[in-house]
Amino acid sequence: MAAFELEPFMRSHQARVEELLRARADRLVPAGTPPRLAEAMRYSLLAGGKRLRPVMCIAFADAVAKASTLNEVAVDAACALEYVHTYSLVHDDLPCLDNDDLRRGKPTNHKVYGEPLALLAGDGLLTEAFTVLASGPEPVRGMLCAELARAAGAAGMVGGQVLDIAKDREATLAYLLRLHRMKTGALIRAACRMGVLAGGGDLAALVSAETYGDAVGLAFQIADDVLDVTSSAEQLGKPAGADAEAGRFTFPAVLGLEASRRMARELVAKAEEAVRPLEGDDGPLAALARYSVERTS
């Protein structure tokens, strides 16, 4: 059987996500956001990127939905995920953290708008995510807000960032796994679970999404670490070799390059197995898992 063709799927879904994000960003100024703040928020939100988290959310909603039309809850969940992801990138790039000059091939937010406005643009994106997600009558929106808040918060992405900058960071696999299950994996797991919840999936589907999201989140980070030592800044759209320069321990530094690639492949296989009950032997979710480690940026 031919493998699922991911490229046309990604093109159509990325275009849909871009359209949804633009429509919501257009509401900022009419809703009372100061124009300069709205401009800074839009600059990073609409700068492109893989849109992997919203695409995964939509793909899981599609996989479990009883209706063929994507519902408004799933659409809002997908957008809220990208708002939170973008905020995290804006803050990560600040001089007090990674001090990066490039993001998605463009100057980072603070290089264009200055540090104070970049900080506030990130704050605006984070809080606006919950405006988007909570604005509707459906009871499931409360559960979705809780999922997203847990993934983004102190026991998720923010906590993982703290582990990443710790002075006493350990050069062990156990530490790396804990760190990246929080910093990168938490939001990817949330994207998968939120898709199931928004699509009306059952407990078995939610368990599949959890297993898949955990595996893909780690595989995605391993691929990032590998690309950081094997690709150029032009390929990545951001500085290459930044982790090594900052003295951070990565999967290649701890395990070696080939062992890291092997671990990523094993995680992808685990993810594919987890979603087989939802889409059969191959489908968009399995293809997205493979893409997480086969990508070049």
Rg is: 18 Å
Classify the secondary structure makeup into a structural class: mainly alpha
Strand order of the largest sheet: 1-2
The CATH superfamily name is Farnesyl Diphosphate Synthase
Report the count of strand segments.
Answer: 2
Q: How many structurally independent domains?
A: 1
CATH architecture: Orthogonal Bundle
Strand coverage percent = under 5%
Taken from the alpha-carbon principal axes, the silhouette is globular
Order of helices and strands: HHHHEEHHHHHHHHHHHH
Number of helical segments?
A: 16
From the N-terminal CA to the C-terminal CA, the straight-line distance is: 28 Å
For the residues shown, what is the average pLDDT?
A: 92
What is the top-level CATH class?
A: Mainly Alpha
Share of helix among residues? over 70%
Biggest β-sheet description: 2 strands, antiparallel
What does this entry show, briefly?
GO terms for molecular function: metal ion binding; prenyltransferase activity. With 297 residues, the protein is mainly alpha-helical. The chain has helices spanning 6-25, 35-45, 52-64, 72-92, 109-113, 115-134, 140-152, 157-165, 173-183, 185-199, 203-230, 233-236, 242-245, 251-255, 257-279, 284-294, and strands at residues 102-103, 106-107.
Structural overview:
- This protein is mostly helical and 297 residues long.
- It has a single domain, classed as Orthogonal Bundle (Farnesyl Diphosphate Synthase).
- The protein is built from 16 helices and 2 strands.
- It has helices at 6-25, 35-45, 52-64, 72-92, 109-113, 115-134, 140-152, 157-165, 173-183, 185-199, 203-230, 233-236, 242-245, 251-255, 257-279, 284-294; strands spanning 102-103, 106-107.
- The chain has a two-stranded antiparallel sheet with strand order 1-2.
- Strand 1 and strand 2 (106-107) form a beta hairpin.
- Helix 1 (6-25) crosses helix 4 (72-92).
- The longest helix is centred in the C-terminal third of the chain and has 28 residues, at 203-230.
- The mean pLDDT is 92.
